[in-house]
């Protein structure tokens, strides 16, 4: 009878060798460079968010996309338009759109979604904004009108876009624009859209 085979002993696991000092130093230096690049990227993205307002304004003016309207009153606020200025033979449909741009933690929506009106009439449209963050935020609304050839005939008498809006943490606010659609608008234009893009602005952060 052959002799029993002795059990095989498991091989000892080799201890992990520490990284050479040169490799460790190179890795630490690479990590520091990566952190610096990420910090610069975050700072650049933050600055770009504030630059979006003038960039958006310039882009629309150069390309003619979504005709820009002035952010100043067209005329002193009046209670009603003269009857002779109202074109009762025409009806134009107005749609209203509100958008919070990236970086602005607001909810924006139109209360007035659509209006059918006669050119020359004074009307109001309302929007509601809500600050979803836990700090005060300053925002600026930039209006645009489409089709672009209707922009010069959209006259804002009073508008929340004339000044920046500061919302406290969790605050909800109703915003109003009072306007007249000039009767000189091209007769072929039957549908107009007024859009507001809301951008974050430098301001108090509490």
Task: Give an account of the 3D structure.
The protein has 206 residues and is α+β, with helices and mostly antiparallel strands. The protein has one domain (47-201): Ctag/Cox11 (Pfam 04442) (Sandwich), CATH 2.60.370.10. It contains 1 helix and 10 strands, in the order αββββββββββ. It has one helix spanning 21-63; strands at 67-68, 92-100, 106-110, 114-117, 122-131, 137-146, 154-159, 165-167, 172-181, 191-201. The strands form 2 sheets. Strands 1, 2, 4, 6, 8 and 10 form a 6-stranded mixed sheet that branches. The model is unreliable at 58-66 and 75-81 (pLDDT under 50).
Secondary-structure map with pairings?
Layout lengths: L20 H43 L3 E2 L23 E9 L5 E5 L3 E4 L4 E10 L5 E10 L7 E6 L5 E3 L4 E10 L9 E11 L5
Parallel strand pairs: 2-10
Antiparallel strand pairs: 1-6, 2-4, 3-5, 5-9, 6-8, 6-10, 7-9
């Amino acid at each position: 009878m052959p002799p029993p085979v002795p059990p095989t002993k498991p091989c000892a696991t080799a201890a992990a060798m520490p990284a050479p000092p040169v490799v460790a130093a190179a890795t630490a230096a690479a990590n520091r460079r990566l952190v610096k690049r990420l910090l610069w990227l975050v700072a650049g993205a933050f600055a770009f968010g504030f630059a979006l307002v003038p960039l958006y304004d310039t882009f629309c003016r150069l390309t003619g996309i979504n005709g820009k309207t002035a952010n100043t009153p067209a005329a002193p606020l009046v209670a009603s338009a003269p009857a002779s200025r109202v074109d009762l033979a025409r009806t134009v449909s107005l749609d209203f759109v509100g958008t919070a741009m990236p970086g602005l933690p607001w909810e924006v929506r139109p209360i007035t979604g659509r209006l059918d009106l006669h050119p020359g009439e004074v009307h109001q449209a309302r929007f509601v904004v809500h600050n979803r963050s836990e700090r005060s935020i300053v925002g600026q609304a930039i209006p645009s009108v489409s089709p672009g050839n209707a922009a010069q005939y959209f006259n804002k008498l009073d508008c929340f876009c004339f000044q920046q809006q500061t919302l406290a943490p969790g605050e909800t606010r109703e915003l109003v624009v009072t306007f007249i659609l000039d009767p000189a608008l091209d007769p072929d234009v039957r549908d107009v859209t007024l859009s507001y893009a809301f951008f974050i602005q430098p301001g108090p952060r509490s």
